[in-house]
Design brief:
single chain; 192 residues; alpha+beta; five-stranded mixed sheet; 5 helices; 10 strands; globular; OxRdtase_Mopterin-bd_dom; Sulfite oxidase-like oxidoreductase
Length: 192
Amino acid sequence: MIEVGGVLTEALTLSVADLAELPRRELGADFHCVAGWSATGLLWEGAPFRTLYRTRVEPLLEPGTPISHVVFEGLDGYRSIALLEDALADDVLIADRLDGQPLDSDHGAPLRLVSPGQYGFVSTKHLCRVEFHTSEPPDPDRWLPIASHRRARVWHEERHGHLPGRVVRPVYRALIGPIRALSARGSRQEPR
C-alpha cells in the first residue's frame, strides 16, 4: 500500500493491485550511487510516476495548486525529496519488478521509486508514502543536509550541495565499503 497525501483535497491509498491497473512500462537503465559505483543494464518494470500523478493525484488538487516538491517515504522511515519536475521525468517509475522478477527485500520490495537520472539515494526503497508540497519541505532525516545536492542529477554530477563532484568523489568512494555493510545489515531486518 502507498498512502498519498500532502496538499490533496483528500488522502488516497493505493494498493499494489491499484498500481498494477495503471499502464506499465519496462525501462532499461543504470543505477548510480553517489559514492561512485554503478549497476548497469538493469531492467525495471512498473507504473510511470508521471501517469500516477496525472491520473490519480492531479484530480485531487485544487485548481491552480502549485506543486513544487514530492516526498517519498519507505517503510524503514527513509525519506527522499525531489522537485516535481524531476519526479515527472519520463524515466521515473514506481517499480515492482527488476530483471523480470518481483522485487526482493534487498531491492526495495514490494514497491520502490526508480529515478535513473538521479543518484540512488532519491530512489526510495519499500515505498509506502508519497506527499505533495507547494514549497520545499524540511528534511529532518537527512544525515548531513549540507552534503546532499537537492536535485542529485547524475549527468550533472550533483553529488554535494556546495562542492563540485571532482572534490567529493574520492571521499564518497571511501564510504562504499561501510555503506555496503550497513545496507546489507538493513536488508536482513524485517521492514516495519
